[in-house]
Amino acid sequence: MKLIKKILYFFLFFRFYNNYKDLALKDLNFKKLDFTNYKQIKSFIFKKNFVQLNNKYVQNFDFLNFSKILGGKIGINLSKESIISWHSVNKYKLGFPWNEDLGSRRLINIIYNYEFINSSSTRLETKKLNRVIVEHMNRVMFDFKHKNFSEITSYDLLANTLSLLILKKDYSKKKKILNVIIDQNIDNLGMHKSYNVLEHAKFLNNLKELKNILLYFKINKSKNIDEKIILMTSILNEYFHLDGSFPLFHGSNNNYTKIIYESLNKKNTLNRDLIEIFRMVLLFFQAKIKNYFLMLFNQIQKVYLII
After folding, report:
1. Comparing C-alpha atoms, which of 209, 271, 206 is closest to residue 238?
2. I need a labelling partner for 41 at 20 to 30 A (CA). Which of 34, 49, 62, 206 fits?
3. Contact partners, residue 268, CB within 8 Å, separation at least 6
4. For residues 278 and 197, which has the higher predicted lDDT (pLDDT)?
5. Statement: residue 34 has pLDDT above 90
6. pTM score of the predicted model
7. How far apart are CA 75 and CA 78, in angstroms?
8. How many other CB atoms sit within 10 Å of the CB of residue 68?
9. For 74-98, b where at least 16 C-beta lie within 10 A, e where not — what string?
């Protein structure tokens, strides 16, 4: 039944919807932390027809972040041509690469990098790019509506919220759903239920981006978002060792340790530094006191032997 609805919806959409005007897509880069795997992207970015690869770093459009760093005409053309080429191959598909949260991740990457990608576009190129964005927004909203809550990721939350607000649709009914999904992903202690420190950090980052999106569009944000951000930040601080590393369990890795560590509240980082300094000073004086008492004991022993 869901598949039939999807087919009917997209047939009608592609057949009749052609309004891409008045899209306000500037100043919409809300990125806080960059979780792009640049090493993976470098392995395919300059290959011919790389957009046809069944690689998640291709299909989630993370390569746009690399293109932006590359900069200049090369980076702009690489981004623009790759998006349009990908769209011509995949726009009518119903499964991969439209499953899971790939559509949401693509939409976020396009919007966050829109001003760079579109900086030297002709009117026709802008129209094509905007069409890709509008189709993604409508697909994201359709999938969000028909997904189970357990299937919705923080990237889906971001993309769906952006889509609704950019298209000026009613967002008021989504607030309760937002809180339910956030609560479903976080346990009572404030830890992401994957119990993977990296996934915890990504979810926290996306909550911060979501908060900034709501503030930008002048939407009254839920107190639940602020509370969860504080709670998750506190938990994340606790998982870091004094040397800046964190435990590698449940699939965690150290690829993004530095940016996560540096993103934490400076006050908390300062407190950790002070604690470490205090510990070192204490150890120093303990050693000094120990040596002093050993010397004193030796002197007493010598006096006792003389007597």
Report:
1. 271
2. 206
3. 233, 237
4. 197
5. yes
6. 0.80
7. 5
8. 20
9. ebbebbbebbeebbeeeeeeeeebb
Bond from prior residue into 247 cis (ω within 30 degrees of 0): no
Could you tell me the sign of the dihedral formed by the alpha carbons of 12, 117, 82, 165, in that order? Answer: negative
Residue for token pair 């057949």: 15
Query: Pick from 157, 133, 138: which is nearest to 61 by CA?
Result: 133
Report, as an integer, the average pLDDT of 128-142.
Answer: 94
**Residue 292: what pLDDT?**
56
291/50: higher pLDDT? 50
DSSP characters for the chain? -HHHHHHHHHHHHHHH----TT---SS-----S----HHHHHTTTTSTTGGGS--HHHHTTTHHHHHHHH-HHHHHHHHHHHHHHHHHHHTT-SSTTSSTTHHHHHHHHHHHTHHHHTTT--HHHHHHHHHHHHHHHHHHHHHHHHS-GGG--HHHHHHHHHHHHHTT---TTHHHHHHHHHHHHB-TTS-BTT--HHHHHHHHHHHHHHHHHHHHTT----HHHHHHHHHHHHHHHHHS-TTS-----TT--STTHHHHHHHS-HHHHHHHHHHHHHHHHHHHHHHHHHHHHHHHHHHHHHHHHH-
